[in-house]
Amino acid sequence: MELIFRMCGTPSEENWPGVSKLEGYKLMQGIPQHRNRIREVFSNKIDPYALDLICKMLTLDPQNRLTASQALDHDYFWTNPMPCQPSEYVPPFFKQHESY
Question: Cα(62)–Cα(39) distance, rounded to whole angstroms?
Fold first, then answer.
């Protein structure tokens, strides 16, 4: 859990209203408080649309987290380069061995 908290932030009333009323929350007392660092860590490493999708899927507050349907309709999946059909993709390994 600490690794998750270090990346996504430690649950608190600021980032997840009502979390302190959940069963087990008191067991987390004394755990170091961390802020969400996903954008900071990955901003220069992955596509901005992918980063936005990841951040929205890893939001602590379930009321603000994307549903599966919302995630599938995210701009990441509708922005060029568009994904290809599975039949259009031949892994490089297989291209090397087509003559066999």
Answer: 19
CB 36 within 8 A of CB 59: no
CB 36 within 8 A of CB 15: yes
Whether residue 75 contacts residue 52, with contact meaning beta carbons closer than 8 Å, is answered with: yes
**Token pair recorded at residue 19:** 């979390």
- Which domains, and CATH codes, for the chain? 2-83 (1.10.510.10)
80 phi-psi bin (left φ>0, alpha ψ -120 to 50, beta other): beta
Compute the distance between CA of residue 98 and CA of residue 35 in angstroms, rounded to an integer: 50
- Over residues 31-86, the pLDDT tens digits come to 999 999 999 999 999 999 999 999 999 999 999 999 999 999 999 999 988 777 77
